[in-house]
C-alpha cells in the first residue's frame, strides 16, 4: 500500500485551490533519481521488519514519513503538483458550460475576423489589432473560452507528467494490487542475438508490445491519433500523431509505443530504438519524438512501480516551418545505462508529441504533423526495433 503514499491524491477536492508556480521548482530527472532511492529505502525497511531488526509498526511509520524527508523533496513536489492539478480540474469542470463555451468561441472568432478585416482596410493598425487579440482571452465576455483553455492545458500537463507503460497482468503473478494500471500485452519477446565481436552482442526487439495515445484541445482545430498494429497484410507497426489549430485555440496529440523486455545480462549496456518518421510542421508548440527507458520495480512485498531509467529527449524535434519530407527519415534514440538481469521488467517507450496553437498575433494557423494524410506522403512514426548492446 505504501507506494501510494508517494503519489496518491489525498486531498479532498474543493474550489479553494490556488494555482502555485510549483513547476518552476520541479525537475523530472531529479525526481526519478530520488524516487529510485526512496524505493530502495522502503524495501530495506520492509526487509529489516521481516528479519526482526525493527518492528513492522516502526517500518510503517518511517515509510509514511519519507515523503517529508528533504532528500526526497522532488518526489514530494510532484505529489503536490498532481494534487493541486486534480483539485483545480475538478473545480474548473464544475463551473464549465459547454453550450456557453461554443457560443463564446463563435463570437470570439467573429471579433478576430473583424479585427483582421479592419487591418486590411486600414481602419486600425496591426499593432492595435495585436494588442486587442492578445487581451481577448481575459475578456469577461469569453470567460468560458478561457476556462476551457485552462482545463485542457492542465489535463495535458498532468497526462505528460504521469504517463507510464501499463503493467502486464502476466508479470504480477496474480497480484491484483495495481489492477487499474494493468493490461494484457504481448510478452512473447523474441530476441535476435548477433555477435558484434568477441565481447559484444546485440539483442533486437522488432515488435511493439502495446500502443496508447492521448488527445485533446480547445478552439478551432483538429488532431489525429491512429495506432496501427502489425497484420499479415501490413506488417509495419506505426502511429499517426498530429495536431492543427486555426484562428484561435490549441490542440495536442501524443502517441506511445511500448516494448517490454528482460535484461539479457547484468552490466553496462547501450539501449535504444531505431525508427523512421515522416511529417512536417508550421510553428508548432511541440513536434518531437522521445525515447524513454522504464524499469518495473517492487516497492515492498506486494506493490510495483515504473521508474524512469533514462531518456533521449528530442531524438527528433521539428521547429519553425518544416515541410514534409518526400520519404521517411531514419532516426534513432538511445543512451548508456546499467541493466540488471534480475530486474522484474524493462520497457522501451517511443513517444511522439505534437501540439499546435493558433497564434492570432503572428499567424492564423499552426500544425505539428506526424499523421495528417492531406499533406501528402506517408506521415507517421514507424517502429523498427529496440536494441540492447553489451
Descriptive overview:
The protein is of the alpha+beta class. The chain folds into three domains: 3-94, no CATH class; 96-156; 169-389, no CATH class. Helix content is 29%, strand content 36%. It contains seven helices and 15 strands. It has helices at residues 3-7, 28-50, 56-65, 73-95, 98-120, 126-136, 143-162; strands spanning 167-168, 182-183, 192-195, 201-205, 210-228, 237-261, 267-278, 280-282, 286-298, 304-317, 321-322, 329-339, 345-357, 365-370, 380-389. The strands form two sheets. Strands 3, 4, 5, 6, 7, 8, 9, 10, 11, 12, 13, 14 and 15 form a 13-stranded antiparallel sheet that branches. α5 runs antiparallel to α6 (126-136) and α5 packs across α7. The radius of gyration is 24 Å and the shape is globular.
Briefly characterize the structure.
By secondary structure, the chain is an alpha+beta fold. The protein has 3 domains: 3-94, no CATH class; 96-156; 169-389, no CATH class.
Amino acid at each position: 500500500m505504501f507506494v501510494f503514499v508517494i503519489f496518491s491524491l489525498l486531498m479532498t477536492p474543493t474550489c479553494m485551490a490556488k494555482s502555485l508556480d510549483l513547476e518552476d521548482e520541479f525537475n523530472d530527472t531529479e525526481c526519478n533519481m530520488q524516487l529510485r532511492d526512496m524505493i530502495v529505502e522502503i524495501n530495506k525497511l520492509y526487509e529489516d521488519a521481516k528479519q526482526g531488526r525493527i518492528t513492522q509498526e516502526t517500518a510503517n511509520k518511517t515509510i509514511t514519513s519519507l515523503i517529508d524527508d528533504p532528500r526526497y523533496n522532488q518526489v514530494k513536489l510532484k505529489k503536490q503538483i498532481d494534487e493541486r492539478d486534480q483539485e483545480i480540474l475538478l473545480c474548473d469542470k464544475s463551473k464549465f458550460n459547454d453550450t456557453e463555451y461554443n457560443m463564446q468561441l463563435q463570437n470570439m472568432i467573429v471579433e478576430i475576423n473583424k479585427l483582421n478585416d479592419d487591418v486590411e482596410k486600414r481602419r486600425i493598425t496591426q499593432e492595435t489589432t495585436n494588442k486587442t487579440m492578445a487581451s481577448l482571452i481575459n475578456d469577461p465576455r469569453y470567460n468560458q473560452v478561457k476556462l476551457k483553455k485552462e482545463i485542457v492545458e492542465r489535463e495535458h500537463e498532468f497526462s505528460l507528467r504521469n504517463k507510464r507503460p501499463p503493467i502486464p497482468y502476466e508479470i504480477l503473478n496474480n497480484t491484483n494490487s495495481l489492477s487499474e494500471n494493468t493490461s494484457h500485452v504481448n510478452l512473447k519477446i523474441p530476441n535476435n542475438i548477433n555477435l558484434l565481436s568477441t565481447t559484444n552482442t546485440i539483442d533486437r526487439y522488432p515488435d511493439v508490445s502495446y500502443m496508447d495515445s492521448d488527445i485533446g484541445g480547445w478552439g478551432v482545430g483538429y488532431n489525429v491519433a491512429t495506432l496501427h498494429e502489425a497484420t499479415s497484410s501490413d506488417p509495419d507497426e506505426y502511429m499517426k500523431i498530429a495536431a492543427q489549430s486555426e484562428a484561435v485555440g490549441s490542440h495536442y496529440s501524443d502517441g506511445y509505443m511500448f516494448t517490454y523486455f528482460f535484461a539479457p545480462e547484468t552490466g553496462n549496456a547501450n539501449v535504444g530504438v531505431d525508427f523512421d518518421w515522416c511529417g512536417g510542421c508550421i510553428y508548432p508548440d511541440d513536434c518531437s519524438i522521445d525515447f524513454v527507458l522504464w524499469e518495473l520495480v517492487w516497492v515492498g512485498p506486494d506493490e510495483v512501480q515504473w521508474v524512469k531509467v533514462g531518456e533521449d529527449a528530442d531524438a527528433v524535434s521539428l521547429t519553425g516551418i518544416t515541410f514534409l519530407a518526400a520519404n521517411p527519415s531514419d532516426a534513432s534514440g538511445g543512451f548508456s545505462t546499467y541493466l540488471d538481469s534480475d530486474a522484474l521488467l524493462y520497457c522501451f517507450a517511443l513517444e511522439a508529441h505534437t501540439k499546435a496553437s493558433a497564434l492570432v498575433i503572428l499567424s492564423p494557423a499552426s500544425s505539428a504533423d506526424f499523421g495528417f494524410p492531406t499533406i501528402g506522403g506517408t506521415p507517421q512514426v514507424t517502429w523498427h526495433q529496440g536494441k540492447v548492446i553489451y
